[in-house]
Design brief:
This protein is α+β, with helices and mostly antiparallel strands. The chain is about 45% helix and about 20% strand. The protein has ten helices and nine strands. Strands 1, 2, 3, 4, 5, 6, 7, 8 and 9 form a nine-stranded mixed beta sheet that branches. Strand 5 and strand 6 form a beta hairpin.
Protein backbone atom coordinates (compact mmCIF):
# COMPACT_ATOMS: atom_id res chain seq x y z
CA UNK A 1 0.00 0.00 0.00
CA UNK A 2 3.02 2.26 -0.40
CA UNK A 3 1.40 4.22 -3.22
CA UNK A 4 -1.29 5.76 -1.02
CA UNK A 5 -0.82 9.39 0.07
CA UNK A 6 0.80 8.88 3.46
CA UNK A 7 2.03 11.43 5.97
CA UNK A 8 4.47 10.05 8.50
CA UNK A 9 5.72 11.87 11.56
CA UNK A 10 8.95 12.79 9.77
CA UNK A 11 7.07 14.80 7.14
CA UNK A 12 5.17 16.67 9.84
CA UNK A 13 8.12 17.52 12.08
CA UNK A 14 7.34 20.11 14.71
CA UNK A 15 8.40 18.88 18.12
CA UNK A 16 9.57 15.47 16.98
CA UNK A 17 11.57 13.15 19.14
CA UNK A 18 11.52 9.41 19.65
CA UNK A 19 8.61 8.83 17.25
CA UNK A 20 6.26 11.43 18.68
CA UNK A 21 4.96 14.82 17.55
CA UNK A 22 3.25 17.17 20.01
CA UNK A 23 1.76 20.56 19.18
CA UNK A 24 -1.00 23.01 19.96
CA UNK A 25 -3.53 22.59 17.17
CA UNK A 26 -3.86 26.13 15.68
CA UNK A 27 -0.15 26.55 14.79
CA UNK A 28 -0.01 22.94 13.54
CA UNK A 29 -2.98 23.59 11.28
CA UNK A 30 -1.45 26.81 10.04
CA UNK A 31 1.76 24.98 9.18
CA UNK A 32 0.03 22.04 7.45
CA UNK A 33 -2.79 23.58 5.39
CA UNK A 34 -2.47 20.77 2.81
CA UNK A 35 -3.76 18.31 5.40
CA UNK A 36 -7.39 19.35 4.87
CA UNK A 37 -7.47 17.06 1.81
CA UNK A 38 -8.06 13.34 2.35
CA UNK A 39 -4.79 11.77 3.48
CA UNK A 40 -3.60 8.64 5.21
CA UNK A 41 -1.57 8.40 8.40
CA UNK A 42 1.17 5.87 9.11
CA UNK A 43 0.98 6.67 12.85
CA UNK A 44 -1.49 6.93 15.75
CA UNK A 45 -3.14 10.34 15.85
CA UNK A 46 -4.98 12.06 18.69
CA UNK A 47 -6.63 15.51 18.69
CA UNK A 48 -8.52 17.41 21.39
CA UNK A 49 -10.53 20.41 20.15
CA UNK A 50 -10.85 23.28 22.65
CA UNK A 51 -12.53 25.62 20.19
CA UNK A 52 -13.74 25.51 16.62
CA UNK A 53 -16.53 24.26 14.35
CA UNK A 54 -16.96 22.51 11.02
CA UNK A 55 -16.45 18.85 10.30
CA UNK A 56 -13.86 16.12 9.91
CA UNK A 57 -14.11 12.65 8.50
CA UNK A 58 -12.37 9.39 9.42
CA UNK A 59 -12.61 6.59 6.87
CA UNK A 60 -15.48 8.43 5.14
CA UNK A 61 -17.59 8.79 8.32
CA UNK A 62 -18.38 12.47 8.96
CA UNK A 63 -18.28 14.08 12.42
CA UNK A 64 -19.07 17.63 13.52
CA UNK A 65 -16.34 19.47 15.39
CA UNK A 66 -17.16 20.82 18.82
CA UNK A 67 -15.11 22.05 21.78
CA UNK A 68 -14.03 19.28 24.18
CA UNK A 69 -14.33 16.62 21.52
CA UNK A 70 -11.41 14.20 21.33
CA UNK A 71 -10.74 11.79 18.50
CA UNK A 72 -8.27 8.98 17.92
CA UNK A 73 -6.96 7.40 14.72
CA UNK A 74 -4.94 4.29 13.98
CA UNK A 75 -2.31 3.83 11.25
CA UNK A 76 -3.78 3.35 7.77
CA UNK A 77 -6.99 5.32 8.22
CA UNK A 78 -7.92 8.12 5.80
CA UNK A 79 -8.81 11.51 7.18
CA UNK A 80 -9.91 14.98 6.05
CA UNK A 81 -10.88 18.26 7.73
CA UNK A 82 -13.24 21.12 6.86
CA UNK A 83 -13.08 23.68 9.67
CA UNK A 84 -15.17 26.83 10.04
CA UNK A 85 -13.39 29.76 11.65
CA UNK A 86 -10.55 29.58 14.17
CA UNK A 87 -9.90 26.09 15.51
CA UNK A 88 -7.60 25.24 18.39
CA UNK A 89 -6.72 22.43 20.77
CA UNK A 90 -3.92 19.89 20.98
CA UNK A 91 -2.49 17.26 18.67
CA UNK A 92 -0.31 14.26 19.44
CA UNK A 93 0.96 11.88 16.75
CA UNK A 94 2.93 8.83 17.85
CA UNK A 95 4.38 5.82 16.08
CA UNK A 96 3.53 2.16 16.68
CA UNK A 97 6.90 1.75 18.39
CA UNK A 98 6.53 4.69 20.81
CA UNK A 99 5.47 2.52 23.77
CA UNK A 100 7.50 -0.55 22.81
CA UNK A 101 10.54 0.03 25.00
CA UNK A 102 8.32 1.19 27.86
CA UNK A 103 5.70 -1.53 28.06
CA UNK A 104 5.95 -5.30 28.06
CA UNK A 105 2.94 -5.44 25.74
CA UNK A 106 3.80 -3.33 22.64
CA UNK A 107 0.21 -3.55 21.31
CA UNK A 108 -1.19 -2.09 24.55
CA UNK A 109 -2.79 0.96 22.82
CA UNK A 110 -4.89 -1.47 20.74
CA UNK A 111 -6.63 -2.70 23.90
CA UNK A 112 -8.53 0.61 24.07
CA UNK A 113 -11.82 0.66 22.15
CA UNK A 114 -11.04 4.06 20.57
CA UNK A 115 -7.88 2.67 18.90
CA UNK A 116 -9.79 0.06 16.93
CA UNK A 117 -11.76 -0.66 13.77
CA UNK A 118 -14.95 1.07 14.95
CA UNK A 119 -14.66 4.69 13.81
CA UNK A 120 -17.71 5.78 15.85
CA UNK A 121 -15.95 4.66 19.06
CA UNK A 122 -12.96 6.86 18.16
CA UNK A 123 -14.73 10.25 18.40
CA UNK A 124 -15.73 11.15 21.94
CA UNK A 125 -17.48 14.23 23.34
CA UNK A 126 -16.05 14.68 26.83
CA UNK A 127 -18.57 15.01 29.68
CA UNK A 128 -18.44 18.30 31.61
CA UNK A 129 -16.80 16.83 34.72
CA UNK A 130 -13.83 15.55 32.68
CA UNK A 131 -13.15 18.48 30.36
CA UNK A 132 -10.79 20.45 32.59
CA UNK A 133 -8.85 17.34 33.65
CA UNK A 134 -8.24 16.27 30.02
CA UNK A 135 -7.21 19.82 28.95
CA UNK A 136 -4.77 19.92 31.88
CA UNK A 137 -3.30 16.56 30.85
CA UNK A 138 -2.72 17.82 27.29
CA UNK A 139 -1.29 21.09 28.60
CA UNK A 140 1.17 19.14 30.80
CA UNK A 141 2.16 16.97 27.81
CA UNK A 142 2.86 20.12 25.71
CA UNK A 143 4.89 21.67 28.54
CA UNK A 144 6.95 18.49 28.93
CA UNK A 145 7.66 18.61 25.18
CA UNK A 146 8.70 22.28 25.36
CA UNK A 147 10.83 21.78 28.48
CA UNK A 148 12.74 18.83 27.00
CA UNK A 149 13.82 17.60 30.43
CA UNK A 150 16.02 14.50 30.50
CA UNK A 151 13.08 12.31 31.46
CA UNK A 152 10.48 14.21 29.37
CA UNK A 153 9.79 11.35 26.95
CA UNK A 154 8.98 8.88 29.73
CA UNK A 155 6.84 11.47 31.51
CA UNK A 156 4.96 12.04 28.23
CA UNK A 157 4.41 8.27 27.91
CA UNK A 158 3.00 8.17 31.45
CA UNK A 159 0.72 11.16 30.86
CA UNK A 160 -0.57 9.64 27.61
CA UNK A 161 -1.33 6.34 29.33
CA UNK A 162 -3.16 8.28 32.05
CA UNK A 163 -5.12 10.04 29.30
CA UNK A 164 -6.00 6.76 27.54
CA UNK A 165 -7.16 5.11 30.77
CA UNK A 166 -9.19 8.19 31.81
CA UNK A 167 -10.99 8.26 28.44
CA UNK A 168 -11.38 4.47 28.40
CA UNK A 169 -13.18 4.56 31.75
CA UNK A 170 -15.88 6.90 30.46
CA UNK A 171 -16.36 4.91 27.24
CA UNK A 172 -16.74 1.71 29.26
CA UNK A 173 -19.16 3.44 31.63
CA UNK A 174 -21.25 4.78 28.77
CA UNK A 175 -21.84 1.34 27.30
CA UNK A 176 -21.80 -0.30 30.73
CA UNK A 177 -19.70 -3.28 29.80
CA UNK A 178 -17.29 -5.34 31.86
CA UNK A 179 -14.03 -6.85 30.64
CA UNK A 180 -14.02 -7.86 26.96
CA UNK A 181 -15.79 -11.17 26.52
CA UNK A 182 -14.25 -14.12 24.71
CA UNK A 183 -16.41 -13.35 21.66
CA UNK A 184 -15.38 -9.66 21.64
CA UNK A 185 -11.72 -10.71 21.72
CA UNK A 186 -12.41 -13.19 18.94
CA UNK A 187 -14.06 -10.51 16.80
CA UNK A 188 -11.14 -8.14 17.37
CA UNK A 189 -8.68 -10.86 16.37
CA UNK A 190 -10.76 -11.62 13.27
CA UNK A 191 -10.76 -7.93 12.26
CA UNK A 192 -7.01 -7.73 12.87
CA UNK A 193 -6.41 -10.79 10.67
CA UNK A 194 -8.57 -9.30 7.90
CA UNK A 195 -6.45 -6.11 8.10
CA UNK A 196 -3.32 -8.21 7.54
CA UNK A 197 -4.59 -10.64 4.89
CA UNK A 198 -7.67 -9.23 3.07
CA UNK A 199 -5.97 -9.09 -0.34
CA UNK A 200 -5.01 -12.79 -0.16
CA UNK A 201 -7.61 -14.44 2.06
CA UNK A 202 -11.22 -13.83 1.01
CA UNK A 203 -13.20 -16.68 2.63
CA UNK A 204 -14.59 -16.84 6.19
CA UNK A 205 -13.64 -20.53 6.50
CA UNK A 206 -9.94 -19.66 6.02
CA UNK A 207 -10.11 -17.02 8.77
CA UNK A 208 -12.00 -19.44 11.03
CA UNK A 209 -9.12 -21.89 10.57
CA UNK A 210 -6.59 -19.24 11.58
CA UNK A 211 -8.68 -18.54 14.69
CA UNK A 212 -9.03 -22.27 15.53
CA UNK A 213 -12.83 -22.12 15.43
CA UNK A 214 -15.52 -23.37 13.03
CA UNK A 215 -16.88 -21.12 10.25
CA UNK A 216 -20.32 -21.38 11.91
CA UNK A 217 -18.93 -20.08 15.20
CA UNK A 218 -17.21 -17.16 13.43
CA UNK A 219 -20.42 -16.30 11.61
CA UNK A 220 -22.44 -16.49 14.84
CA UNK A 221 -20.00 -14.11 16.60
CA UNK A 222 -20.24 -11.56 13.74
CA UNK A 223 -24.04 -11.82 13.65
CA UNK A 224 -24.27 -11.44 17.42
CA UNK A 225 -21.87 -8.50 17.85
CA UNK A 226 -22.14 -6.73 14.48
CA UNK A 227 -25.47 -7.90 13.08
CA UNK A 228 -23.75 -9.01 9.89
CA UNK A 229 -22.09 -12.13 8.46
CA UNK A 230 -18.35 -12.88 8.53
CA UNK A 231 -18.30 -12.67 4.71
CA UNK A 232 -19.79 -9.15 4.87
CA UNK A 233 -17.11 -8.08 7.37
CA UNK A 234 -14.38 -9.23 4.94
CA UNK A 235 -16.05 -7.56 1.95
CA UNK A 236 -16.63 -4.32 3.87
CA UNK A 237 -12.91 -4.19 4.69
CA UNK A 238 -12.09 -4.62 0.98
CA UNK A 239 -14.49 -1.79 0.07
CA UNK A 240 -12.97 0.46 2.75
CA UNK A 241 -9.45 -0.15 1.41
CA UNK A 242 -10.68 0.53 -2.14
CA UNK A 243 -12.18 3.85 -0.97
CA UNK A 244 -8.94 4.75 0.82
CA UNK A 245 -6.93 4.07 -2.35
CA UNK A 246 -9.38 5.99 -4.52
CA UNK A 247 -8.58 9.18 -2.57
CA UNK A 248 -5.18 9.13 -4.30
CA UNK A 249 -5.67 10.68 -7.77
CA UNK A 250 -2.24 9.36 -8.84
CA UNK A 251 -3.50 5.77 -8.83
CA UNK A 252 -5.62 4.62 -11.76
CA UNK A 253 -8.48 2.14 -11.34
CA UNK A 254 -6.46 -0.70 -12.92
CA UNK A 255 -3.65 -0.21 -10.40
CA UNK A 256 -6.11 -0.22 -7.49
CA UNK A 257 -7.80 -3.41 -8.77
CA UNK A 258 -4.33 -5.02 -9.04
CA UNK A 259 -3.30 -3.86 -5.53
CA UNK A 260 -6.48 -5.39 -4.09
CA UNK A 261 -5.82 -8.64 -5.96
CA UNK A 262 -8.82 -8.54 -8.30
CA UNK A 263 -8.37 -10.56 -11.49
CA UNK A 264 -9.43 -7.60 -13.63
CA UNK A 265 -10.73 -4.06 -13.60
CA UNK A 266 -14.32 -4.93 -14.57
CA UNK A 267 -14.67 -7.46 -11.72
CA UNK A 268 -13.38 -4.84 -9.27
CA UNK A 269 -15.82 -2.22 -10.65
CA UNK A 270 -18.77 -4.66 -10.31
CA UNK A 271 -17.73 -5.57 -6.76
CA UNK A 272 -17.39 -1.91 -5.73
CA UNK A 273 -20.66 -0.81 -7.34
CA UNK A 274 -22.58 -3.62 -5.64
CA UNK A 275 -21.58 -2.27 -2.20
CA UNK A 276 -21.36 1.46 -2.81
CA UNK A 277 -24.09 1.93 -5.43
CA UNK A 278 -21.62 3.81 -7.64
CA UNK A 279 -18.56 2.96 -9.71
CA UNK A 280 -15.03 3.60 -8.40
CA UNK A 281 -14.73 6.52 -10.87
CA UNK A 282 -17.96 8.10 -9.59
CA UNK A 283 -16.85 7.68 -5.97
CA UNK A 284 -13.47 9.27 -6.72
CA UNK A 285 -15.08 12.18 -8.57
CA UNK A 286 -17.34 12.82 -5.58
CA UNK A 287 -14.41 12.86 -3.12
CA UNK A 288 -12.24 15.11 -5.28
CA UNK A 289 -15.12 17.50 -6.10
CA UNK A 290 -16.02 17.70 -2.44
CA UNK A 291 -12.49 18.81 -1.55
CA UNK A 292 -12.32 21.20 -4.50
CA UNK A 293 -15.63 22.73 -3.38
CA UNK A 294 -14.31 23.19 0.16
Amino acid sequence: MLNTPVFDIGTLSDFRENDILISRFAPYLDQHKNLSAAHRHSFYHMVLFTEGAGSHSIDFEKFYVKPHQIYFMVPGQVHSWDFEGFTDGYIVNFSSSFFQSFLLNPSYPETFSFFGEDVKAAVIDLPDYLQQKVVELFETIVNEAIGKDVSAIDMIRLLMLQLFITIDRITKKSVDRGPASYNQTLLRNFQKLIGEHYTRIKLPKDYAELLYITPNHLNAVCKDLLGTSAGEVIRARMVLEAKRLLTNPKLNINEIAFMLNFSDNSYFTKFFKKFEGKTPEEFRKGILNQHHHE
